[in-house]
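Ticket #353: bound-state structure for adenosine-5'-diphosphate.
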Amino acid sequence: MTSPEPAPRSEALAAELARVLESGGAAAPDLVPAAEVVVTGRSTLHRIADRASGEQYLVKVPIVVSGWVDTHDVLPPAAQFEALERAYRWQSAEDRHAVVRPVAMLPEHDAFAMEWAPGRTVLETLDRAPFDPRAAHAAVRAAGDFLRRFHRHGWVAEERVALDGPVEEIRHLVAGPLRDAGLRLPGPVSAALDRVADRSAVQARVLLHGDYVPSNLIVRSADEVVMIDPLLADVGPTADDLARFLTVLSSNSAFLPGVVLPPVRRLRRSLEAAFRESYGIRDPDELLELRLLHQHLLRWLRRRENSRLRGAAPLLAARNRLIDRHMRALLLESGARLAAATRHDPRLPGPIR
Ligand SMILES: Nc1ncnc2c1ncn2[C@@H]1O[C@H](COP(=O)(O)OP(=O)(O)O)[C@@H](O)[C@H]1O
Ligand SMILES: [Mg+2]
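RESOLUTION: The complex was predicted; output attached.
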C-alpha cells in the first residue's frame, strides 16, 4: 500500500465546513470538534458539533490507498459523496431504515461531511451477540431487510449465467495464494465445487453496495438501520453483497469459541439464517455459496496475513489454529449448502454453452 498524506486537524475541517454551510445560507454555525478523531485505515473521521443548532456532523477524510486483499480500493472523496447522495435519494422512497444524510463536499481538505448518526454499529451489536442475542438478531434482520430494498433500487437485470467462472476463481485462489500460505480447501468442498462446475444459475445483477459490512450500518431502533458508507462503484451479482456481509458476520471473533462451544456455533448459524431470511433467501443458492466460499477464502488469507505481520508468539499460534478450525467449519458448512443446492434444485439447469 502507498502511504497516506498527513491527516488534517478537526479545527481546520470545522472551519471549512462552517464556510460551506454559511455560503449555503446557514445562519452563523458555531462548529467545534465534538469527539476524538477515529482512524480506521481507510479514513479518518472527525465528529463536529454545531453549538448554535445542536446538530452534529461527521467529517470523513478518505485515505485513498489500494491493495486491499478482500475488499474494494478506497474511492476518492467526491466518488464517496456522490454514492452517498445517490443512496440517500433511493432511500427517500422507503418507509423503513435510513441512509445518513450527505451534507457537503470539503474540497480544501479532500473530505466530505455527513450527518452524524447516533447509536451502535451492527458490528458492535454482533461483538456482543453472546451476551445479547436478541439485539443481534434484530440487527441482522434489519440489515437483510435494508439490503433487499437497496438492491431493488440498484436493479440492472436478471440473467442465466454459467457457474464455471466463479468455480474457476475459487480454484485459482486455492492453487495460488492459499497454497502459498500453507492452507487447503477441505475435501468435501472441492468435491461440491466439481459437481457445480458445469451448471448454470439465474442471477440478479445490481449496482452493488460494494462494502455491505456490519460496521457500515448503525442500529437506529430495534429493527431499523442507518447505512453510512456505500461504494456503488460496480455492477455485479446480488450474491456479492450478501456474501460480503455473511462472511464478515460469521468470521467475527465473538463466534470463534463456537469451534468448541455448540451454543455459540448455533447462535452464529441462527444469525446467518436470520439475515438470509430477511433478505428473502429461502433455499440454498449455488451462486451465493460460491461467492461465499470465495469471500471466506479471502477473509482467511487476510487474517493470516494480519497475524503474520504481528509476529509468531506461541499465543498467536494457538489463536491461528482456532481461526483455521473456525474458517474450515465455515467452508464446510458453505460446501454442504452448495452440495444440497446442487442435489435438490428442481430446475436442474444444464450448461448454457
Ligand atoms: N455518519 C456517521 N455517524 C455515526 N458514526 C459514523 C458515521 N460515519 C462513520 N461512523 C463511524 O465510523 C466508522 C468508520 O466509518 P466508515 O464511513 O465506515 O469509514 P471507512 O472508510 O473506514 O469504512 C463506522 O463504523 C462508524 O462506527
Ligand atoms: Mg466503512
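RESOLUTION NOTES: Residues 348-353 have pLDDT under 50 and may be disordered.
TICKET STATUS: resolved
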